[in-house]
Amino acid sequence: MAFKTAAPSSATLVFSTITAPIRSKVTLSALTLASSVLLASCSTTSQTTDLITVDRAQGSEENIASLTAVINANPGDPEGYNVRGSAYGRAGQFKQALDDFNRAIQLNPQFYQAYANRALVYRNMGKPVEAANDYNRAIQLNSSYDVAYIGRGNIYRQAGRNDEAFNDFNRAIQLDTTDGRAYHNRGLIYQLRGQHAQAIEDFSKAISLSPNSPEPYNGRAVSYLAMGDDENAFADINTAIAYNDKLAESWTNQGLVYETRGDRARAAKSFAHAARLDPNYQPAKDGLARTRSS
């Protein structure tokens, strides 16, 4: 499920999602689960990147034609290219999106939103260096642009530069962002540092800003588990599943709670379901191996 952000201006892409929790290395020794099972097994997704939720209708012939008509009516307006580039981006047509953002920036080199939009496309194309350069430029042009700090922070986090990532997420929060990704991502770094009380506070704030997204519920559950609170962890995990029952991570987390409670049969079922959703998700495979053989 997409992690909803605050309603952006027409100059900002609306297809970014949060799917990038950090795997902590804290053991669950406070629980009845064997200490060899790491908190890493309870994480949400392993990739640290904003992924575009593709909507092919955005790139439909009719939609692009209407946006092109706007551009043709005023070819010197960079906003038209930025809007069409956003549509191409949401449709997964990244080359066309880049062409439009390039043109928007050519027409207005101060167009900081277009730099951030192009950065997100670069990230989805696997080009973090180009993306970071664009986020840097957006911040140079507008030092109060929270979207750019969050985007750059995710690049830092993907590179393992967690202190710099933390600073960027913290800066976005200081700017009074209403984008829950800032709180969620900062919470993940608190979690990595073993500061679970602070992590829970940040995940809770992310939930208040995006209550229908499963990711912060999963993140908060991990910290609850680390603090030995399996009741609240279980409630959060089940809420995450209710919002999106296709995440292997959520079912794996559920299995771990069952496992800590000594209910290996239910744990095995949860792990097995997670493994069916994502056969390559190692924590699910490991959990199934532990519980199925018992």
TrEMBL record:
One Pfam family of this chain: TPR_2
One term of GO molecular function: transferase activity
TPR repeat start and end residues: 78-111, 112-145, 146-179, 180-213, 248-281
Cited InterPro entries: TPR-like_helical_dom_sf, TPR_2, TPR_rpt, Ycf3
Record's keyword terms, sorted: Repeat, TPR repeat, Transferase
Domain of life of the native organism: Bacteria
Protein name: GlcNAc transferase
